[in-house]
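Our consortium's second objective concerns turning raw sequence data into structural hypotheses that experimental partners can test. To show how far this objective has progressed, the report includes one record in full. It was chosen at random from the queue rather than selected for favorable results. The single chain below, 200 residues long, was entered without modification.
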Amino acid sequence: MKIIFDKAFFDDTPSIVFDIINNLRAVLDHAIYASCIASRRPVTEFAYFPFAKAETFLANRIKGLTKEAPEEIQALIPTFKPYKGANNFLWSLNRLCNSRKHAILMPIGTQDLQIHLTPGIILQTSHRWNPEKYEIEIDTGSGDFRDAHSFAFRIGFDDEEPRVSRSDPPAVLRAMLSEVQGVLVRIEAECRKLWPESFV
């Protein structure tokens, strides 16, 4: 048995969310670039906000992607912990930017798929989401659900980090926004302290 969705929802909504996530990710790069401008440093190519799979790789990422940023800003980056297992909302922000747009949101949580039969009778069963066909495939081994009048499930991010995938998308986006704002405020404050003449 399958629940087939109107493709418009999974075309439009993920596109909006994808734009939000990419714009938040871009803010981080712009903050690094702005620090170069504030410090009067020449910028050619390597002024990006770095991410790493683990803390042990972060220093090399900074030396590569962020090497044209001021040393003071490079020293600040590890305090944001932009690597897997530390600041998970920042890490997932970067990971989701590199995911397939149409697979960024999906019906999640096997235990959350509810099948409503007659009033007062609600069943739960296993399912699989097919992002290419916009379908939920339901295991019908436990019953015949053709007379079901409605289905209920949650929508979440297709992410490996449980705090992201198990939370409501608006809450995740707010958490990501908060982390990005925190980075931006601290970089700007450092730039204002070091190069106040650039803010006159």
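The partners drew two points from this record. Residues 7-38 form the longest helix (32 residues). Strands lie at 2-4, 105-108, 114-116, 122-124, 127-130, 135-138, 150-152, 154-157. Both points have been shared with the crystallography group to help prioritize constructs.
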